[in-house]
Amino acid sequence: MPERNIDFGRFGARGIKGSDAVARKLDELAGGIVTPVTVQRGWMARLHYLTKSAQTLKAARDAGLTVTPRTLKTWLEGRRRPSRANLERIDQAYRTVRRHNVARHLLKRLSRDGRGTRVEIHPLDQSQVPQPLRRVVEYRTMNVRRWDRIVGSWAAGDRQGLDAAWQDTIIDLGSQWGQYEYVTNVGFAA
Amino acid sequence: MSDFDAIDSLLDAVGPEAELPPCQVRRELRERARLSKAQVARALGVSPSTLSGWENGRDPAGEIRTKYAYLLDGLNTKLATETAAGTATGTEAALAAEQPLASDTAATVTPSSSPDPGQDEDGDDVEPLVVPEPCVLCGHPAAQRVAGFAQHLAPADCRPTATGALDTRPQPEPATPQPPNPSQPDRHASHTSRGSHPVRSTPPARRAFQEPSGPVDLIHEAVRDTLTEHQGDADAATAALLKKAIPDAMRLLDATRKGARYDVIAHPWIPDILKKQTARGADQIWEARPKWTRRELPPGRHEVTALDINGAYLSALKTHLPLGQLEHSTGLAHDRRRSGVHLITPPEWDHEAVLPHPIGQRDEPGPLWVTEPTLRLLLRLSGPKHQLCAPPQIHESYTSGATENLLEKFRIALKDARDTAIEQGDTVTLEYVKAMYSKFVSTMGESNYNRELYRPDWMHLIRSQAFANLWLKALRAHDEGLAVVRAMGTDELHVIGDWRRVFAEGRGVTEVKVKDTYTAGTDAGEYTAIAGEEE
Asked: Where do the domains of chain B lie?
């Protein structure tokens, strides 16, 4: 695809992938436990979230928290502390389950009964690019109506799928959409 | 054109307002004539939504009211004759649809005052031209303009192009609005003028189909609708309006930004200093809220007046707001065209006894993040005019190109609605407007109550502007010889002395109102703390 950037940042442009910015924003909107997993308050809160019901526990197991019920019990009673590898797993499982739980609500908010949400795309940062190589890249806004693929692949943790979905969305920006593959920020509210 | 023509037309415009039938009848007349709103609106030169407003309870005014009354009158007469005659040919119906004001026979629409169809050449749509212009049909000079096109009124005058000097185009006969029927010489001439003066058409507005109403009507409409919904119960309506103040303020903001130069960027990247550290915590910006009480009163007993600044946050909407994403810079001097937040070391303040520190009651020493209004206030006070302190040292800045006019229309709309409400004693609108601007300011940051706008920088700037405005009022009082006793919060100023010669009293945003008066100090003149403070 000719619009794709091949070697982004070669001349000093800075930015992140648009889909990563979207995922970041969706994570921000999804909210959740902010205390880091490394402190007891943090991992305990996550464990409580993951063991609230049989369903969530099953989802946590599917998401990779494969420990015996006995171990879980000792953790929850505070008799033992999860190892570093297990903390990682707890965090990962929490993120997956949380995203999955929030996705439906988020999708409804973003679709707004088909009216969609206004998305602001802040272009990449060219301040470090030599003057002759700079291009005019404007701030753009667009209304995104179809969020199901974006939110779906975000909830599934499918980075490539999200990238493809976002790519298909920003094509609506017109012929310059390739300039918005990398951005500094994507802003929207749910 | 001589000056008298303008005066004549002005005199013409003054007179009793035309009678209009009730709203249902207006709609019924239009629908019975099978005219769409768009057609009628185009003929009257208004937008279709304005027309539906007129059919749903609103009334036009001025010249457009006369035109509308004339149209309705014409429709009324025409429909009456049509029902009497019982027949209307298809071609004529199509014609009438194409040109809503045209009629099958001129006499049907012509008011009874001029029943002779031969006299009605001097119609509203027909303007005589002082300097003849080439006719759009034949190219020869024509002395009249019909519906904006210079043309001959009678087909006999309209000779085909003999020499191609003026017009070499092929004769555009079928496409032009030429009279289709020679026996009906002028279908545009059905419009007669009132009286003998030719009525000049108003020059076209700069933009077509613009609502004549401003955004302030959004406020009045919302109030009216809510009042009808609650059957005129003011308390219930106020409560309902307060609930939807935030979305309504956003809608008003959108309405005021229509056609504006700058976009309102609602979700820019925000530097960490502007993010809250914890869910309920604060960010690192110091808003310079004044919280100052004079340590010692001048000797003697004094009458202290507590003044209240009206609509402090409403006035503070006029401030230099950064438009786009904030960009970091270090060690640069202040740029008047940019705005944002700055890390400064504030100067020493030697006037604590009589005036508050412009950065408020800061306990910690050292550099702090202040906003644009505070910095501008400090720079102004350190300038050659005041020389009250040393200039502040700017270390770092997050700024962006700024404008003072971003919320200006929004502010004016709210101010106008507020003024009208005060004038009419309309507490519902007053409360609504107050909730709109105060909630707009308090939720424009990272609030969950307003997710459409995430501008914590603007929130801080607007608040600081309100504090800076209060500070400047305190300075003004001090310069005019009043003793400032207390400057507190956004709108509280306690002074000793004849303040009425400094500030105007009233409820407008430029005026102040008295909150309280009390006596303080001692007769002996020894040190006393001020007691008996009232809110």
From this structure: 1-113, 121-158, 272-520
